[in-house]
């Protein structure tokens, strides 16, 4: 048995060289131990959308996200419909004190608040609300469609 510590951030050459093999081990583990289906969401099904009513993707997915939030809150947290309406959703997960910023040496998406949307068959099944800052990513909240709880999207999102 040989154990190596491989720097993942910033990615070292060893990390890059073994990424696919490590991913395949992770995927097999998730399928065998956690009974994840082989068609669990992939990176192509995840969209990072700036939290801004000026952004076309955010605007076009707002109603779907707000509806999913209400379904999650009522199912998982037993909230009443009045506790998780559109205004509550906006106040809790869309209004942010962070201002969007695009630094020349920063990430392509910039800094600020984002909704990391998980799409499957043309519909949003989970949303991770995150803040991307110069030295960290902060996970603010995650909500998902309870019909897809078998996918362990909270765990997947945290690992991603």
Automatic annotation (TrEMBL):
KW Secreted (keyword) present: no
Gene label: Ate1
Name of the molecule in the record: ATE1 transferase
Transferase keyword on record: yes
GO cellular component, one term: cytoplasm
Organism: Myiagra hebetior
N-end rule aminoacyl transferase C-terminal domain ranges (all copies): 66-160
Transmembrane region(s): none
Keywords: Transferase
InterPro entries recorded: N-end_Aminoacyl_Trfase, N-end_Aminoacyl_Trfase_C
Domain of life: Eukaryota
Any GO molecular function: arginyl-tRNA--protein transferase activity
